[in-house]
Specification:
single chain; 379 residues; alpha+beta; Butyryl-Coa Dehydrogenase, subunit A, domain 1; Butyryl-CoA Dehydrogenase, subunit A, domain 2; Butyryl-CoA Dehydrogenase, subunit A, domain 3; eight-stranded mixed sheet; 12 helices; 8 strands; 15% strand; globular
Length: 379
């Protein structure tokens, strides 16, 4: 299928051999808990996709990143979901690194380690949300000599078994005594950090989405990013950028999974020409609106306008994919269903896009206000 082949070409450019390595693993193995896909991603330099070239990465733009995610989603929805968390975290942190003085020497040193060390960053954020309270921390930070003791948990937390770093939104005491949003960079395996079973579904089990628990985990002060008087918008900028990247990347992964089902219909010439063409058109429309948002961001769309654009794309894709997946399964037929569960599992995974924040109901009023000329404020 042309659109999926083009996405695979982009993926091959940035991660030579990765898709071939994934294809050599049976689908059930790719999607199971403890499977090999995250290790393969790491081995094929997947961590550097959105890392700037100055830090040893590929510096892919939004359109290229969305294409890579579609290719990965077509091969392993679990992998696409998992690495979304690494990628949007990288996009946020390295955006700060591009502005002199916004990160400490220790923070910059950490970012310089990611690509050469093939390090993965798990997200202890609320999966990309914007404006006040969107990154409501589930982790508290108690000041001690030299840093903070972190206590709390993140569940589910993708990459929980493979992460090298946990990037967690935390509440630290401000000058007025009230909680202030900050970002902690926590090395995996730090004393007091543990992982507990949480994910109970067979779908997307390969994403390693278990619970990460922090019990008085010490983090040095220099590995905590805080807003300062001289840089009052530091974390506002960070969470807006993260929101935009998260919505694009997570939507792209599930779009790739739906695309794999449509590709199977096309390859098998299932159904009539009219049915196949209609199915492909629905998928291509979803791809087009998502790529349109990514292209706008690449060309400079930012702030509330970018947030609105990616939400429109995300909900359009969210509406389209279950219909595409269901129709693809129907056209593939009962014999395909009987022969094995792979296509049915992929169709089931597609529906998980609806479970990522922000929920449609929560975004409805803010979007209506924005469409009517007001501010876009998601709670």
């Amino acid at each position: 299928m042309r659109s999926l082949d083009l996405a695979r070409e982009v993926c091959e450019h940035y991660h030579p051999g990765l898709l071939k390595a994934l294809a050599a693993v049976p689908y059930a193995e790719r999607e199971r808990a403890g499977g090999p896909v995250i290790g393969l991603f790491r081995a094929h330099d997947g961590v550097g996709l959105l890392v700037p070239t100055a830090f040893g990465g590929h510096g892919a733009d939004p359109v290229q990143a969305v294409a890579v995610q579609r290719a990965l989603g077509a091969s392993s929805p679990s992998l696409a979901a998992a690495v979304t968390m690494h990628h949007f975290t990288a996009a946020m942190l390295y955006s700060l690194a591009g502005h002199g003085g916004r990160l400490s020497t220790a923070q910059l040193e950490m970012l310089h380690q990611v690509v050469p060390g093939r390090q993965l960053m798990a997200s202890g954020w609320a999966e990309g949300r914007t404006q006040a309270n969107i990154l409501t921390p589930s982790v508290t930070a108690r000041p001690v000599a030299g840093g903070y003791l972190l206590t709390g948990a993140k569940k589910p937390c993708s990459l929980s078994a493979s992460m090298d770093w946990l990037t967690a939104s935390v509440a630290v005491p401000g000058e007025d005594g009230r909680g202030e949003l900050a970002l902690a960079l926590v090395p995996a395996g730090t004393s007091g950090m543990s992982v507990r079973p949480f994910w109970g579904s067979d779908l997307l089990a390969g994403a390693e989405s278990d619970e990460v628990v922090l019990e008085e985990v010490f983090v040095p002060r220099e590995l905590v990013v805080r807003t300062s008087e001289g840089d009052p918008h530091r974390l506002d900028d960070l969470q807006t950028a993260g929101f935009v990247w998260f919505e694009m990347l997570v939507s792209a992964g599930y779009t790739g999974a739906a695309g794999a089902l449509v590709e199977a219909v096309m390859a098998g010439e299932r159904g009539t020409e009219d049915e196949r063409a209609g199915l492909a058109v629905r998928l291509e429309a979803a791809i087009a609106v998502l790529e349109g948002a990514a292209r706008a961001v690449r060309e400079g769309l930012s702030g509330e306008a970018a947030v609105a654009a990616v939400l429109v794309a995300r909900y359009t894709v969210q509406d389209a994919l279950p219909v595409v997946a269901a129709q693809a399964l129907e056209l593939l037929g009962g014999l395909d269903f009987v022969r094995g569960p792979d296509h049915a599992r992929m169709a089931g995974a597609v529906r998980a896009l609806a479970f990522h924040p922000p929920a449609r109901a929560g975004a409805a009023r803010p979007l209506l206000r924005y469409f009517g000329g007001g501010p876009l404020e998601l709670a």
